[in-house]
Amino acid sequence: MLGASATFAEGDDVIGPEQRAAGRRFAYRDLTAAGLALLLVAAAFVVPRLGNETMTAIVHRSAESVRDFADAAPLFGFRDVHVGWGTPVAIVVAVAVAVWGPGLASRLSWRHLTLGAWLVSAAWAMSLAMVDGWQRGFVRRLTSEDEYLHEVPRITDIPATLRGFTERILDDQPDSWTTHVSGHPPGALLTLVWLDRIGLAGGTWASALCVVVGASAAAAVIVTIRALGDESMARRAAPFLMLAPTAIWVAVSADALFAGVVAWGIALLALSARRAVRFPATAAVGGGVLLGFGIYLSYGLVLMALPAVAVLVIARTARPLAGALVGALAVAAAFTAYGFWWFDGYVLVQERYYQGIASDRPFRYWAWANFASLVCAVGVAVPAALPRVFTWPQLKELSPVNVLVVAALLAVVIADLSALSKAETERIWLPFAVWLLAAPALLPQRSHRFWLALQALGALAVNHLFFTNW
């Protein structure tokens, strides 16, 4: 037995005076952690509007720069109180998941739950997008001149594009890439070029790809937790993954695509580690391919090595490592053979980062405001559950949810300290955020409807009070 506090940390019912006292202590910690997270968010919204030059969201301010880059700080967007035809749909989805989600998640067959997590996550994301309307909220999201699609019609020779990719990263180079293409490896651009080549051109198809793959991360996370030996916690986590505020940026940002790709890479690694599939070696190679492709979608996804290592630690095996390395190195070899050297791109993108708006975003604000953005993306249930995540008996026993959440937290801390994620972390950190969303599974089951309702209210508030850039 782990003791009363650990038992309550798992969300089990408590009995007896000692257990009830332990339950009250943990409940107090839950609410305190959630309250502190809300104070952080409030401070991040208020501080930039106090006129303090030493603690501001943007320096060298002008009315135009504040409107374009800091109007909704710490979120990237602008203030815009609005409703849309997606509003009632989003409310219906939210109520349905909050009321019936926990019960259904505990009873459905595993196959139906996995598919349901994917479909409901996509429905929630689309209903929030439709608050902004079909064109504004979905079709045109990836079509601005700063986005990947702007470059797609200009790619006529893929090998030549890869050979010359790094030459066009810096902003002072002739014919430099648009903002998003220059800030990432060529994997995302190539994905949309391939989509265009098969006849699925334009913003609608690109957005649909991001939503479908991004929403699938909900299924990947619960598949991983179950594969690592804790189906009960996977089922408890499912409603929180379905009703996550991250859905605002799943519909639509390319980072949702990134999140889905690497989430399934981790899931395949877990399935291989526990030999939960017929061909575990093949799953290991597949996981390596997806994780390897991930670092060619975004440089920062090299930090997905932390959740990957966490999977091997939880499973107490390094057996899938060889296959995963083969898969990842095969991806790297292909890109290198066609002329793109990842390390050159990474060095140049750091210089390019400070040629843009990042130079006017002071780290002294964004170092902590990034986490306020993250709270907006994952909702208050995640910080509420953190005291239960850092429960030593659970960590010592390598509980899958606890260890995976700690690995994801470590990844975002490193990303933050790099100073290469100043602002926009509500979307940039999506690949890490989806793993944090498993944390509320540790909250007492009888409180899940309450926390799900708060998650939904937070997402609805953000989506109706602001127009986010993604």
Automatic annotation (TrEMBL):
Keywords: Membrane, Transmembrane, Transmembrane helix. It comes from the Bacteria. The chain crosses the membrane at residues 26-47, 83-101, 113-131, 205-228, 240-273, 293-314, 321-343, 363-386, 398-421, 427-443, 450-467. This is Integral membrane protein.
